[in-house]
Structures are given as C-alpha cells and as structure tokens.
Give the backbone structure.
Amino acid sequence: MSPLNNQRENSSTEPNQLRNLLHSNAKDLQNEVLNSGGAVPAEKLEALRRLSDLVGICDSAKRTPPRSRWPLIAVFGCTLVIVSILLFTGPRSTEIEMNLRLDQIGFVLPVRQVLSEQLSLASFGVTGVSQVELPRADRSEARTLVSGHDFDSSVALTAAGESPLLGEVALPDLILPAQTKVSFQKSEGPNRFRLTLPTTGLNLSAAVNGPVRVSSIAGSEAQLTFLSPKSVIFKAQSREVNLDLTFRDLPQKISPMPLTVQDLNLLRIEDRRGIEGLPIRRVSTILSGTIFFEELNGKKLTLHPGEVIEMESSQGEIVSLEFKDDIAVRFHGRVSGITSGPADIHQSLMPNWLEWLKSRQGLSLFWGSTIYLFGLVVALRRWLRAPE
C-alpha cells in the first residue's frame, strides 16, 4: 500500500479511535463511580474532560469536501423544463364546437356528398357560364343562349306571375365530387345569398315551371311559361361559377345534415390594389359566435364581430347551416393550430398540456404534483443540512 493511501486511511481512522477511547474511559469511570458509592476521582474526570475536548478539536479540524451545487442546479433545471413543457406545448389537435353567425363561410368537401337538396327560390342567378339551354315553353321553342351574344355571362331566372299561377324556380339536388371547394356568402338585397362552386365535375341546372322571367345583366328580358316542369341547363366558361339564391322567405336550412367538411375558412380576401395601391388584406367574416373546447370540459370562448380566427387544419361536420339575416353555422370537429387576432399578434387558442391534464387527468395531476413537490422539499432540506 502506498504512503498516500496509508496517510488517508490513518486520517480517517484516528478520529474514530479517539472516540472509541473516549467512550471506553467514560464507561470505566462510570462503573468506578457506581462501585464507590458516588465518589468521583477528580484526576480521572479531568483527564476524561481533556480527552473529550481533544475529540471535539479533531472533529473541527477535519477537512470536509465542499458541498456540490450540481444536484441543486439539476433539480432546478428539470423543474424548469417540466413547467415549460406543461405551459408552452400541448396536443397537436383539439376537439371543438363552434356556433357562428357569419356573412361568409368556406370549406372543402373531403368526400362526394349531397351539398343541398332541392331549394325552392324566388330567383336564381348564375354568373360565369357560356351557354344556357332553355327548354320548350308555351309559344316558344327550345333554344340556346350564348354568352357575349344573348347575355353577358350572367343569367337570372325569376318566378313570375301571381298566386295561384306563380311560377316556380328551384335549384335541384347538388351532388358534388370529393375535394370540392364551397363558399356561401350573404349578398346585398333581402333574402339573397351567393354560392360559389368550382366547375370541375359540376352539372348545373335549374328546375322551372309556370311563368318564369329570364333576364341578363345586359338588360335583355323575356318571360316564358312552362306548361310542365322542365330543366334549364347551364354550361360553365370559367373555373368557378357564382349562384345567386334569392329565397321567398327566411330562415332557410341547407339539408341534409350533417355535412362532412374540412379546411373551414372564416376569412375573405379584399383586393384593394385598385384603390390607390392598397394591399390585399384578409378580413374576418364573423359577426358573433362562441367556441366550446370539448377537451377542456366545454370551456367557452365568446367571439366578437370581426374577430380573426384562423386554423392550420380542421376536419369535422357542419351540424347545421341556416340562412337568416346572416349565415348561422354549427360546426363540430377537430382543429389544429387555431389562433385569434391579426397576423402580427396571433394568439394561440390551442390548450397547453397543463390545461389538458387539469381537465382530463385532474386527480393524476394533483397527486403527481404533490409527490414531486414533496420529494423536491425533502431533497432540498437534506442538501441544506449536509455539513460543509
């Protein structure tokens, strides 16, 4: 064994030997006092006291390594990481329900489905068509109207006459292919709404019966009387068509429901480049509404007029879509990346892990936090009590 190791071993065993000697001498003196009837030898007591002082001096002079602060730093770092994860991260998606009043809404149909059943209308206008095939009517043969000659890309069919001989105009069932982008918008004028659809895979027609007025933006107008239900066929000339729907009265529901949708859009684009070079901007279409966060025990968020709500992705069902003085929509589904506010100060509405755990695993969160804090306090007290 090396001299250094011998020195270390001696330095660690010498205090113990002194303590053992002190304990042995104190025991012997105790026995002697008991046997002598309580007489305490002054010399032996003084020697024992000196030996006790020596043990104390040796203990005070013994060098101890400095207390490491790394455990405290590690505990603080782990706590900071855990709290940061709970507060600043959360689930990738959340389940919500929205009740909204809007002046415009857009969405995508992920699967082929019926957008609406037959809608009875007071007037039906179409913009973005190249031809209109009119069926045979009373005192009028079937004919085809051509854009640029008979009308300027827009045609309107209006129910004419008076009850009980009032004409009928209806939009037949709209069956749209998958990935169709749909937009509903409140238009100027009473009971009037606009439906915008892409022309791909769209067979567009209108059902007519009785006296119907056919007019165009160019000002031409003709009244036809159909003696039996007929179909007016439209052929599109652009990538999308606008259908102007004027109802006889409100409210009107779009059925059947629910409607499977994705990529819900609650914004509209305002192109103001022609107005002194102003930039394009995105404007909220929300008039009022509420959002319920289902995974947070139905936490309610009230929306204000014009509040900007954006979603990275959304998928679910439109439970109801109703035309009133505006567009009333009820949506239920899962969304991700939902934010509120202007583009420069977006505020995330997604729940963090702390909110999620509090709502879904409240008891587990309570006991886990209690155990962690108890262990933290115990470890800190032990570290503070450790000798320097």
